[in-house]
Amino acid sequence: MSEKKYSKQHEWISIEGDIATVGITKHAAEMLGDVVFVELPEKGKSVEKEGQAGVVESTKAANDVYTPITGEITETNQSIADDPATVNKDPEGAAWFFKIKIKNKSELENLMSKADYDKFAKENSN
Amino acid sequence: MGVQKTALYDFHKNLGAKFVPFAGYEMPIQYKDGIVKEHIDTRQSAGFFDVSHMGQLFLSKNDSLEECLEKIIPLDFKEIKKNQSKYSFLINNKGGVIDDLIITRVEGGFNIILNAACKNNDIKEIEKCLKPEHKHELRKDLSLIALQGPKSESILNSIINGVKKLKFMNGGCFEFEGKKIYITRSGYTGEDGFEISVPNIKAENFTKILSNKGVKPIGLGARDTLRLEAGLCLYGHELNQDINPIQANLEWAISKKRREEGGFNGWEKINQDLQNGASKIRVGIRPSGRIIAREGTKIFSSEGEEIGVITSGTFGPSVNSPVAMGYIKSKFSEINNKILLEIREKKYDAVVSKLPFYKKSYVK
């Protein structure tokens, strides 16, 4: 059974063994509005915790996507680049952004549970 | 001065609007359906837009009024028939655009529609050209509602009988619930449509009727994607005090007689560009793939020379591709010319495109 956690930069991360799957939260997708462009990180790239790992754009603006943890990108989801609207339809399912090989498991400890994130998102959405 | 609200603020709120501050007003950026759906609804059916933040300036008729206005507005006022609207500008001494506007000759004078962010300065600039006997009034008692889309004519005519007779860029006086209203056939989306000037006290009633007839509320977000697909300029982006109408590729908005004879602010500079061609010019740009070029994106030639900058860019929901406008050196402005866009430190292919991106369907 995978474990799901949340970051303050509005990403979700689902952990299965050494590999984690990352996407943007339903709250983030709602705040963005209609997603019309997705840029994915390069496969094989090493990324640092809270570093930029993709871009998501609505008709209004471009926003960076960050990685909640340090590691190497092992896979990216080309289907959301081809059909960005998936990010609005199923942000925490089909519209995952990338998979990352976890470098330091202790980084996971500082991430939020769903209940904590929901509270955080509510407080931060004016 | 605090943030201002239009007469329809509460109505928008009840419709689920998300507000943003815009030119000193709290304006709806979008409603529940979101920008893409609002955009498509306008193109396929009809949408209404609250544009009451824009200035409605009334100038009272006077013998020397037209002569004075011709100093700052490069139109041949004798050409403007009663109830006819013209798109033009307020021009500064360098030939730059102080604001773009729609002017309509009405009973007793002229109505000028001004951009919200510019209107107070515009009035100061217009006053510089007027004489003490010229009376003008910024009509804060009136709201302005745009109705746009292919179903606009039949819907509006069912409320206000006779509007279907109006031709594009023409207007007329009508009556709504016992109050005089003024309607022009115009808009900012590339669709057929109307702009309805209605007393604030009747604005909500009028808009409610539109809403009950299935017209969707449309926010500033979709207004921007619609006008961009239609290749229309937005002041502060494609137009500013340092850009002249020739560079903006809007030569047609200066009357032929005025182009030849001048006699308005900045004509010398404008005439130079008319004679020799402008060194830079506004063009449409289509980025390849789905990459979006936002305002400020640098433009390069295929040889790598920096040749211009993007002034507006988004994803066009109706053309289903990214669209942009920008200024580039004129020698690179040929349609289908290949250019490069620098986005997040990478170069992407793009081509110069004809405008509009989306074909208009005005009623002539």
What is the multimeric organization of the chains shown? heterodimer
The assigned CATH architecture of chain A is: Beta Barrel
Distance between the termini of chain B: 43 Å
Low-confidence parts of chain B lasting 5 or more residues at pLDDT below 50?
A: none
Strand content of chain A: 35-45%
Widest β-sheet, arrangement of strands of chain A: 1-2-3-9-8-5
Strand tally of chain B is 19
Radius of gyration of chain A from the CA trace? 13 Å
Q: How many DSSP-defined strands of chain A?
A: 9
| Count of domain modules of chain B | 2
Mass-distribution shape of chain A: globular
The fraction of residues in strands of chain B falls at 25-35%
Report the mean per-residue pLDDT of chain A as an integer. Answer: 95
Number of helices of chain A: 4
Protein architecture, described:
With 126 residues, chain A is of the alpha+beta class. Chain A has one domain: OB fold (Dihydrolipoamide Acetyltransferase, E2P), CATH 2.40.50. Helices cover 21% and strands 37% of the residues of chain A. Chain A has helices spanning 26-32, 78-82, 86-89, 114-123; strands spanning 3-6, 11-16, 19-24, 35-39, 46-47, 52-58, 62-66, 71-76, 98-102. In chain A, strand 1 and strand 2 (11-16) form a beta hairpin. Chain A is globular. Chain A starts with a strand and ends with a helix. The model of chain A has no long low-confidence stretch (mean pLDDT 95). Chain B is of the alpha+beta class and 364 residues long. Chain B folds into two domains: 1-231, Gyrase A, domain 2; 279-353, Beta Barrel (Elongation Factor Tu (Ef-tu), domain 3). Chain B has helices spanning 9-14, 35-44, 65-69, 119-129, 152-159, 200-212, 220-229, 256-261, 267-276, and strands at residues 18-22, 25-30, 47-50, 55-60, 85-91, 97-106, 109-114, 136-138, 142-148, 171-176, 179-184, 193-199, 216-217, 280-287, 298-301, 306-316, 321-329, 338-343, 346-353. In chain B, the strands form four sheets. A six-stranded mixed beta sheet of chain B has the order 10-11-12-9-3-13. Chain B has a six-stranded antiparallel barrel with strand order 14-17-16-15-18-19. In chain B, helix 2 (35-44) packs across helix 7 (220-229). Chain A binds chain B through residues 33-34, 36-37, 39, 55, 57-62, 81, 84, and chain B through 29-30, 34-37, 39, 221, 224-225, 290-292, 294, 314-315, 317, 322, 344.
